[in-house]
Amino acid sequence: MLNDPLFIVVALAALAVLAILMIGILSFAKGGDFNKKHANRIMRYRIAAQALAVALILLFVALRRMGG
Fold it and tell me: Does the entry feature the keyword tRNA processing, yes or no (predicted)?
């Protein structure tokens, strides 16, 4: 699987979601000015990245079922 470029893209997308989520959680835990200014924007980025990751996972599964 590690030789499959689409698998690598899916893994990177999942890691991007994790990174954005961790930034959001840490800024929420710390609080302060940064959290007040950027909390909603960070979570919107997470939702967009998560939607992309799910779409890529579905594409990966569909292509593997078709034998691609």
Answer: no
Q: pTM of the entire structure? A: 0.84
Conformational region of residue 29, where left means phi above 0, alpha means psi within -120 to 50, and beta covers everything else:
alpha
Asked if residue 51 lies in contact with residue 59, where contact means CB atoms within 8 angstroms, the answer is no
Mapped onto helix, strand or coil, the DSSP state of residue 32 is helix
Residue 68 has pLDDT above 70, yes or no: no
3-state secondary structure of 1: coil
Amino acid identity, residue 58? L
Quote the CA–CA distance of 67 and 5 in Å, as a whole number: 15
Let me know: does 6 contact 60? Beta carbons within 8 Å. Answer: yes
DSSP annotation of 66 reads T
